[in-house]
Amino acid sequence: MANRYLLKFNTMKKYLHLWIMALLFMGVACSNSDSDDNPIENPNPTPIPPSEEMSNINIVYDEFQGSSLMIVGSSAYYFMLAFHPAVDGEFMNFTEVQDSLPIVMKDDKGSYWNIFGKAVDGPNTGKQLLSPPSFMGYWFSWGAFYPGLEIYDNSLEAPNFGDGITGSDGWSIPRDDVYIGAPKEAIPSIDNPDFIRIEDNNGDPDNSLRDRDLVVLVNINETLHVYPHNILNWHEIVNDEIDNSKFALIFCPLTGTSTVWNREINNATSTFGVSGFLYNSNVVPYDRVSGSNWSQMLLKSVNGTLEGTLSENIFAIETNYATARIISKNFQQLTTNTGHNRDYLRNPYGTYPTNSVLLFPVNFDDDRLHPKERVLGIIIGEEAKAYRFTSF
Amino acid sequence: MKISTTVYSKRLHITDKASDRINCNQKSNLKDMRYVCIILILIVLLFGRNTSFAQACCTGGAPISTNLGIQNYASEQLIVDLSYDYNSLRDLYAASQNLHDSRRTREIKSLFLRTSYAINDKWSFSVILPYLWQEQIVRSNFGRSSQRTKGFGDLVILAQRSLINNHKHQLLIAAGLKFPTGSISKKDDEFGILLAPDLQAGTGSYDGIGALSYSQFGILSPSSTAFALITYRYSFEQNRNLGQEKYRFGNEFALNIGLSHNIPLKKWRLSPSLHYRYRNSGKDVTDGFDFPNTGGEWMYLVPGFRLHSAKGIVIHSSIEIPVHTNVTGTQLVTSQKWQIGISYPISLKKDKAVQSKYGK
Q1: Which among A11, A82, A161, A387 is least surrounded, fewest beta carbons within 10 Å?
Q2: Pick from B156, B116, B153, B114: nearest CA to B132
Q3: Nearest to A325 by CA among A73, A103, A99, A102
Q4: Is the dihedral of CA B233, B238, B241, B247 positive or negative?
Q5: Which 334-363 residues of chain A touch chain B by CB within 8 A?
Q6: What's the Cα-to-Cα distance from A232 to each of A220, A249, A334, rounded to whole Å?
Q7: Is the Cβ–Cβ distance between B234 and B24 less than 8 Å?
Q8: Is residue B97 part of a domain?
Q9: How far apart are CA B239 and CA B246, in angstroms?
Q10: pLDDT tens-digit profile of A320-355?
C-alpha cells in the first residue's frame, strides 16, 4: 500500500509543473470573461420617428411662477421646447402644424412659426418668441437641483426634502458636496470646432450618425450648427462662434443636459473649460478669464470673482439626428476633427444613459421617475418644473 | 524574481540530509500535494465564477499586486526589505489602441517596507507597509494643473506556508488581508475638495489576497530555475465619497512566469531573470453597476536581477516593459515602471541558541 502511494507521489511530482502550468492558464482563460453590462432599459429610450406622417406635434399651455408658458413637443420627433406665448407683449394662441418641420405651429393671426420660435410666414414674419431657461436632462438631476419640483400632468406626490441647501467655504453651494470627477482640463474642451456641411458628408464613418443619435442644435442668424452627443460625451464643452456671436455649448454626460451660454461676460470674451468638479453629478465649467466656477444646471457662477453672476442663455434644441435632418437640409455638423484622438463611436460612460446608476452623490434623490428618464425642465427664478414626453 | 533567487539560495542549501527529510516526510508531502491541487482547483473555480475582475490602473492605494513576491525564508530568520517602486502613466488607451494623447500624466512613487519572519521551515509571516507619493498632471493650452497626494497606504499582512520544498520543486502558498489603513480623505490644495478615490493613498476597503508560487530548479541547466506566481486580490465593498455610495474595486489576478539563472561572482552571486507578467483587472462596481473606464488586461515583459552578497544582503531591481494593453473604455496606462530594493536578513536563531546556552 505504501509503495503504491509512493509511486503515485513520484508520478504526480514528475508532472507537477505541468499540472500547475495548466491550472494557471485555466485561471487566465477564465479571468478573461467580461463582466455584464447591466443592460437595464431606460423606460423612455430615444425613439426613431417611424415616418413624418405618423408623427404628431402637440402644444401644452401652462402657468408656472406667474409666467405663461407654451411647451411644444413631440415624442416621435423627440423634442420638447418652451416658449412664452407672447409677441411684443401680446399674448397669442398657437395651434400645432403637423408634418411641416421646421414649421411647428401657427398663431391666431395666421403666421407660421418654426421650431426655433421664429415666425417665418404671415404678418408676424421675423418676430421671435422668447424662451425661458429650459433644457432637457435626466430626471434625477432635476430632482437633485430642484428638490420636490412639480411634474406637469402628474399626480405623484412630491417628496418633502425639508430645507434647501446653503453655500460654504467661498462657494454658493456646499463645498463638501462638490466632487472631483477628473483633474482640471483633463477632459479637453473643443476650442477650434470644425464643421462639415451635411450635404458634403459623403458617408464618412467618423461623422455618420444613426437616426436615434442625440444632437444639440444652435441656430443663430439662419446658421445652424449641430453638435452630436457622441462628440460632446468626450469634450463636454465647445467654445464656438456664429456671426460674431460667441458662445459655449456646455454638455454634461452625467446629467444629460445641454446649455448654451454667451461667452461675453462683463465686457470680456472668455472661453469655458472643464474644471473637473461635479456638483449633484453635474458639470462645473470654469471660465478661463476669471477662473470662476459655474454650475451648469443652476445657470450661474458658484465660486470665484464672478460668484452669483447668471449665465446669459442662448436658445438650443436637443433632439435626435433624424429630426435634425428633417428640420434642415443645410446644417453644419461638428466633426470628429477635434484636435484630440478619441473613440467617438463609443460612449465613454457605457450603459450609463440607460441604466439607473449614478456615479456621484446628489443632494436629493427623487424616485418618482426613473432616474435616467429624459425630461424638459423649465427654470423660473429659483424654481423648476418638469415636463415628460408622455404629455406629448 | 524574488522567488527564483530565493529558490536558488534554498537549493544551494539542500543537502543529503534534506533529501532524507523528504523521504521521511513522503506521507506528509502527499497530503500537501492533494491540498495544493484542491487549492489550485478552488482558485481556478473562483476565477471562473467571478465575473468582476480587478481594478484598473488608477484605483488608489499602493500597487500591492506587483510587490507581492513571495519567497521561502530560512527558519527563524527576519528579513527586512525596503524597495522603491516608480510607475509612470503617460499613455492614454482606448481598448488596445494608444490614443497618443500626452496631455495627462500620472506618477506613482511608492516605498515599501516589508518585514518577514519565518517561524519555522514551513510558516512565515510578512507585514508590508507602503508609503506613496502620487501626482496627476494635465498640460493644456491653458496651463498646467496638478493634483497630488502622499501618505501611508494600506497595510498588508500575509501568512505563508511552504508546501513542497526539495531539490527539484518548491511550492509556496500565501494568504493575507489588506487593511484600509491608508487615508481616503485627502483634499486638493487649491479648493479643499475631496480628491478622487483613485488618487487617495488608501482604497478604503479590506481586500483578501492570495498567492501561489511554484518553482522548478535546474530546468534548462543546473543553475537555472523556472518559476510561476499567481496572485489574486478580492476587494470588498467600501463606502465611497464620504459614505454616500457603495463602491467595490474590481478584483485583480496576476500571473508571472519566467526563468532565472545564477551566475557566481567573486563575492557575490548575480541572478538575472526574465519573466512574462499578465494582469487582469475587473471593472469596479458602484451600487451594483459597472463603473465606466475601469478594468482591463495588461501584459509585460519584466527583466530584472538580484545580487546576493555573502552576508545575505540582496539588492534587487526590475523593469516592467508593457507589451500588450487592453483596457475597458479609455484609461491612462503604465508606460514605464521600475523597482529597486534591498533586503537584509537577520537571523534570530543564533541569539536563541546563545540564550539557551547561557540562560536568560
Answers
A1: A11
A2: B153
A3: A102
A4: positive
A5: 340-343, 346, 348-352, 355-361
A6: 20, 9, 10
A7: no
A8: no
A9: 5
A10: 999 999 999 989 999 999 999 999 999 999 889 999
Check which CATH number belongs to the domain holding B201 and give it.
2.40.128
Phi-psi region of B99 (alpha: psi -120 to 50; beta: other; left: phi over 0): alpha
Chain A, 35-94: which have a CB under 8 Å from a chain B CB?
Answer: 35-38
d(C-alpha A358, C-alpha A337), whole Å: 31
- Flag if A348 and B329 touch (Cβ within 8 Å): yes
A240 Cβ contact list (under 8 Å, min separation 6) = A193, A218, A225, A246, A247, A248, A249
Residue (of B111, B150, B153) closest to B133 by Cα position: B150
Q: Does residue B96 lie within any of the structural domains?
A: no
H or E segment and range at residue B187: none
Cell 552576508 belongs to which residue?
B311
CA angle A255, A259, A265 (to 5 degrees): 130
Number of domains in chain B: 1
As beta bridge partners, residue A95 has A106
Specify which residues B264 forms β-bridges with.
Answer: B269
Give the up-direction half-sphere exposure of residue A187: CA atoms within 13 A in the CB hemisphere. 27
pLDDT computed for residue B67 by the predictor: 63
Q: What are phi and psi of B42, to 5 degrees?
A: -60, -40
Query: To probe the interface with B, which of A177, A180, A191 has the most B CB atoms within 10 Å?
Result: A180
Q: How big is the A-B interface in CB pairs under 8 Å?
A: 163
User: Would B298 be classed as within a structural domain?
Assistant: yes
Please indicate, yes or no, if residue B331 is contained in any of the structural domains: no
Answer whether A348 sits within 8 Å of B97, measured CB to CB: no
What pTM, to 2 d.p., does this model score? 0.83
Contact (CB, 8 A) for A251 and A239 = no
**pLDDT for A156-188, tens place per residue?**
888 877 777 888 889 999 999 999 999 999 999
Query: Cα–Cα distance between A220 and A204 in angstroms, integer?
Result: 26
Answer yes or no: are the C-beta atoms of B336 and B302 closer than 8 Å: no
Within 8 A by CB and 6+ apart from B255, the residues are A24, A27, A28, B228, B229, B230, B277, B278, B279
Report chain B residues whose CB lies below 8 A from the CB of A31: 47, 53, 253, 280
Query: Using the beta-carbon criterion (under 8 Å), do A355 and B289 form an inter-chain contact?
Result: yes
Residue of A327, A251, A326, A318 lying closest to A81 (CA atoms): A318
- Nearest residue to B226 via CA among B237, B209, B213, B242: B213
CB A45, CB B273: distance < 8 Å: no
Q: Which residue of B has its CA nearest to A355?
A: B289
Q: Which three cell numbers mark A132?
A: 425661458
pLDDT at B2: 37
**Are the C-beta atoms of A116 and A342 separated by less than 8 Å?**
no
**Hey, is the C-beta of A6 within 8 angstroms of any chain B C-beta?**
yes
Nearest to B111 by CA among B134, B85, B93: B85
- CA A15 from chain centre, in angstroms, equals 60
Q: What is the pLDDT of residues A113-166, one digit of tens each?
A: 999 999 999 999 999 999 999 999 999 999 999 999 999 998 888 887 777 788
What distance in Å separates the CA atoms of residue A237 and residue A294, rounded to the nearest whole number?
A: 13
pLDDT number for residue B214: 96
DSSP A291-346: --EEETTTTEEEESTTTTPBP-B---EEEEHHHHHHH-SS-EEE-S-SSS---TTS
Q: Say if strands B289-290 and B285-286 run parallel, antiparallel, or are unpaired.
A: antiparallel
In which domain, by residue range, is B309 found?
2-86+102-326+339-358
A215, β-bridge pairs: A228, A319
